[in-house]
Specification:
It is a single chain. The protein is α+β, with helices and mostly antiparallel strands. The strands form two sheets. Strands 1, 2, 3, 4 and 5 form a five-stranded mixed sheet that branches. A hairpin with a 2-residue loop joins strand 6 and strand 7.
Length: 153
């Protein structure tokens, strides 16, 4: 898989960092697409979804402050951390929700696909679940990503 060296280095650090997680976690968004070999059209940040329990442990262990600010009209999370682990920004979320109609839908993927990168394992949702998440978000920047994922099926 052809991944930018700065993204590769950041993802390897993420995998090592999350090795102590007690619960499931996932790489989401454009980085997840890149990990399965689908060009997302650039990766500006690495989105990570963890459990509330792991988020609390991370905040305690590293003294990181929860930067959750209520989110947007489309998505939000109760915990939002921005650790400096590499050249690419990292956003760790817990209790992540996407607005679907008038209700906030909790996001906790059901599929787990492990991708090996430089000897470390990273977990992403399956292609169908990645596609469903992008469709729920329905942001303009997601439309080309949706098309790329659809073509991969």
């Amino acid at each position: 898989m052809d991944i930018d060296p700065e993204l590769r280095s950041t993802l390897v650090k993420v995998a090592a960092f999350l090795g102590a997680a007690q619960d499931d976690w996932w790489v989401l968004g454009s980085a997840a697409m890149a990990l399965i070999g689908i060009d997302p059209g650039g990766v500006r940040d690495v989105d990570i979804l963890v459990s509330k329990r792991d988020a609390a442990a991370i905040m305690t262990r590293y003294g990181w402050r929860n930067e959750a600010d209520g989110g947007t009209d489309r998505y939000r999370s109760a915990v939002f951390l921005r650790p400096d682990l590499g050249a690419v920004d990292i956003e760790i979320m817990a209790d992540y929700r996407i607005k679907k109609g008038a209700k906030w839908q909790p996001i906790w993927p059901q599929t787990r696909r492990e991708v090996s990168l430089d000897g470390t394992g990273l977990i992403v949702p399956g292609v169908h679940e990645q596609l469903a998440l992008l469709r729920m978000l329905n942001r303009p920047k997601d439309h080309p990503r949706i098309a790329r994922l659809e073509r991969s099926l």
